[in-house]
Amino acid sequence: MSETPLLQVHHLKKHFPVTRGLLAMKTIGWVKAVDDISFSVPQGETLALVGESGCGKTTTAKLILRLEEPTDGEILIDGQPVHDLRGNALKAYRTAVQAVFQDPWSSLNPRMRVRQIVAEPLVINRKMSRAAVAARVQEVLDSVGLRPQQANLYPHEFSGGQRQRIAVASALISQPKLIILDEPVSALDVSIRAQIMNLLVDLQQAYHVSYVLIAHHLATTRYMAHEVAVMYLGKIVERARTEALFTEPLHPYTRALFSAALPGHPDITREEIILPGEVPSPINPPSGCRFHTRCPVAQSQCAEIEPEETDIAPGHMVACHLYN
Amino acid sequence: MTRHIGDVILQVDDLHTYCFTRWGVVKAVDGVSFALRQGETLGIVGESGCGKSMTALSLLRLVPRPVARIVQGRVLLQGENLLDKSEREMRHIRGRRLSMILQDPQTSLNPVFTIGNQLLEAIHIHHKGSPRTLLSRAINALSQVRVAAPERRVEDYPHQMSGGMKQRVVGAIALSCEPHVIIADEPTTSLDVTIQAQYLRLLREIQEETGLSIIFITHDFGIVAKMCDRVMVMYAGRVVESGPVRDIFNHPAHPYTQALLQSVPTMEERPERLYAIEGQPPALWELPPGCRFTARCPYAEARCEQTYPSSFAVGVDHTADCWRLQEA
Prior knowledge:
Number of strands of chain A: 12
Largest interface: A-B, 41 and 42 residues
Strand order of the largest sheet of chain A: 6-7-8-3-9-10-12-11
Order of helices and strands of chain A: EEEHEEHEHHHEHEHEEHHEE
Number of helices of chain B: 12
Strand content of chain B: 25-35%
Helix content of chain A: 25-40%
CATH class of the domain at 8-89 and 229-325 in chain B: Alpha Beta
CATH superfamily of the domain at 8-89 and 229-325 in chain B: P-loop containing nucleotide triphosphate hydrolases
Largest sheet of chain A: 8 strands, mixed
Radius of gyration of chain B: 21 Å
CATH architecture of the domain at 8-89 and 229-325 in chain B: 3-Layer(aba) Sandwich
Helix content of chain B: 25-40%
Strand order of the largest sheet of chain B: 6-7-8-3-9-10-12-11
Radius of gyration of chain A: 21 Å
Structural class of chain A: alpha/beta
Number of strands of chain B: 12
CATH topology of chain A: Rossmann fold
CATH architecture of chain A: 3-Layer(aba) Sandwich
Distance between the termini of chain A: 26 Å
Oligomer: heterodimer
C-alpha cells in the first residue's frame, strides 16, 4: 500500500453547539459527535464503521459527503482537501463521491421516473448529450440487474430490494471512486439482503470503487468489509483488518459488542458480556477513556487519562490502557 | 437453564385470517396450526407480509376491523376457544392471561401520560384495590423489569426515557397482570445491539422466575438461535416448517428454510459468496394454487404448482410442507 489511499481522514472533529434561549441564544455546551478520528480507505476497498446509535458514524459520513463542515481536522480525497474545493473541482468531487441510504422508500423521489432518478447525478454535474445519458442509464440499470423497460416506471412500482437497486444505480452512474453506504440492507427483508450484498460486492470488483459502510449488524460487515473501525462516543476505539478483528477483538467494548451479537447457530455459546447501563450522553462524555463507566475491566487510570491510539500489530489499532 | 416445560397452554388449529380489500381477498393467515407449552419459547420467523404479525393479532382478536376477519379456526387458551368469546370477555383475557409487547416503544406508549399512569391503566382493568395498592403493583412491575428507582420513574413521561428503558416499560405493562402467555412482536428491532442483549437476557430471567410462555415473532434467525425452544417458519400465510430449534438449524427440510439459513451472513465465518434467494414472495391476493414458494424454489416440479403439499414428518416434532419429502 505505497500509493496514497483514496480517502484520508486526519484528526476529524465535529462539535455541535447546545444552545439555550430563542432570541439571545447562548451556547451552554457542545455535543462532541466526532472527536478526533483518523482513518484511510484505499481504492477498491471497504471500510466499515460500526457502533451503536450516537457513536458518530453517521456524522462521519455526512462530513465525508460535505453535508457538514468539520470543526477541526481534514478529509482528503485523492490528496485534495474536500472542504476547500470550489468550482470545477467541487463538481468533480460530487461525481466522485456518492451515497446509498438506508431507506429506499424515502430516498427516491416518488414523482420522478426511474430513468430521471438514475440520471440525475450526470445531468447536474456533467455536460452530456441526452442520448449519451440515456445510454449510460441503460448500462447501469443493466449492471444492477434491472430490465431496460423498467426505466420508465415510478419508484412505487418496485419492491424494496428493487428500489435499493435503483438507488445503487443512481450512485453508480457518475463512475464514482467512493460510495458511502449508510445501512444499505437493514431496511430490507432477509431474503433480499443477500441479493443486495452480493450485488455491492460484485460491483466493487467490477468497477474498483471504494465503500465506506455504516452498519450496526456485525455479520454484514464481516461479509462486506476489508477493514472495520469500531466507534464509541465519537472516538474510534479499535480498527483492524476484518479477519484480524473478528478472530481476536481486543478492546473491551469491541468484545462486548461482539458477544452481544446474535449467534448463527443455537450451539454457539459465546462468553456473555452484558454491559451495564447505556451509552452516556455525548454532551458531557466521561473523562479519560469514554468507555470506563461501562467497562468490565476498568482500572483507576481509565477515569483520568485518555488512552492513546496504539498499533498492536501492523494495521491493528486499539485505544485502551490494557494494551499500552 | 433451569426452565421447566409443562403442558400445552395455547393451541391454535387451522387459523384463517383474511383481509377483504378493494383488490381482492388477501389471505394473510391461511391455515396456521401450532401448540405452545407452558414455560416454552416459540419463535415465528418469516419476512414481511408472511402473516406472522397477523397471526399474533388474531390470537388476541385485535385484527384491524372491518378489513380483516378471522374466518376459520380455533384458538384454545387453556382449553377455552378465544374465538367464541364476547368482546367484554376478551378484555378480561387480554393482559391478564394473554399479553403482547409491540415492536416500537416510541409508538406504543402514549406521550402525554406518565409511565405510572399507563401502567395503572392496565392494572386497573384486572385488579381492584386502593390507589395505593395499585400503585405499589405498578412499582413492582417496573422493578421486575429492572428499572432503577421505580418509585421516581413512575412519574416520568416517555420522552424522559431512552429507547431501551421505554421498551422495558412496555414489557412491564405487558407483565403487570401476570399473564400466562406473552407475544413479543420484534421487541428488540429498534434497540441497539448491547441494549438488545440486556433485554433478551431480562426476558429469559423473567421467564425462569415466572414460568411464562413466550411467542417470539422475528425475522432474525439469530434471535431464534439465542432465545427459542421451537420455531415455525412462515411463508405467504402458511407455516412451511416447524420443529425444535436445533433440528431446524442442523437439518432444515423445506427449501425456503434452507435458503433463508444460507442467505444470512454470520459472525463466525465469511462465506465466499452469500446464497441469494432470487425473486420475491407472491402477492397474497393472487396466490398460486400449489406451493407458494414454487416460483423461487430451485427444486420446483410440476406437482408443486398444482397442489399444496401436505405436512411430512422429518423428525421428532419436526414437520415440513414440501413434496420432496414424500419419498424420504
